[in-house]
Amino acid sequence: MSKSEMIQTDIGSVLTAEEIAEIDAELAHVPYKSGAAIDALKIVQANRGWVSDQCLQGIARHLDMSAEELEGVATFYNLIYRRPVGEKVILFCDSVSCWINGCDDIKDKISQTLGIDYGETTSDNSYTLLPVPCLGACDRAPVMMVGDDLVTHIDHEMVQQLFASAEQGSAE
After folding, report:
1. DSSP 129
2. Can you give the CATH number for the domain in which 132 is found?
3. End residue of a domain, out of 76, 103, 118
4. pTM of the model
5. Residue 165 to residues 12, 100, 105, 124, 148: CA-CA distances in angstroms?
6. In angstroms, rounded to a whole number, what is the distance separating the alpha carbons of residues 80 and 46?
């Protein structure tokens, strides 16, 4: 993003003109500015991959909210990333249904294959592994999301197939 595309606010945070325009479009649909908080966070995250402290402060200022209020919204939702994440986020379900169907063993296989644990990102920045309480596919457990793709009935072989290229990359 070029400097001409950025708008510097008085608190030192930076939002692009495009991000502000998208947030303003959402404001037209809500009676109070704070009603667009989730959408504003999603807009910034879609453009940057995550929401930095500086961006959060800029969004809060634009929505006439305190940074603390907006942080509460951001941290309540597990799909708002407050730290950088890999190109694909693996949302691994650890609910009761998935646990009964062996998710702990599958999670260990993923960790071994990718060389990361929960909250970590692969060294090539391809994947970040995060736990989630439920993906709503309990009848197909164990399940996970890899990027936008729901993967069901996961087993060791499937993990090998899904992450074969990542494993080869870490072996070189």
Report:
1. E
2. 3.40.30.10
3. 76
4. 0.78
5. 41, 29, 21, 12, 18
6. 10
Quick check: 143 pLDDT over 80? yes
Give the residue from 47, 76, 105 where a domain finishes. Answer: 76
Please state, in angstroms and rounded to a whole number, the distance separating the CA atoms of residues 50 and 12. 18
pLDDT at 151 over 90: yes
Same domain, 97 and 159: yes
Q: What is residue 117's three-state secondary structure? A: coil
Which residues on neighbouring strands pair with residue 145, listed in sequence order?
Answer: 91, 150
- Domain with 95 in it: 88-171
**Amino acid letter at 10?**
D
7 domain residue, yes or no: yes
Q: CA–CA separation, 141 vs 96, rounded Å?
A: 10
Segment 32-43, tens digit of pLDDT: 999 999 999 999
Q: Dihedral sign, CA of 112, 149, 18, 73?
A: negative
Environment class of 150 (CB within 10 Å of its CB; exposed 0-12, middle 13-18, buried 19+): middle
Phi then psi dihedrals of residue 42, to 5 deg = -65, -35
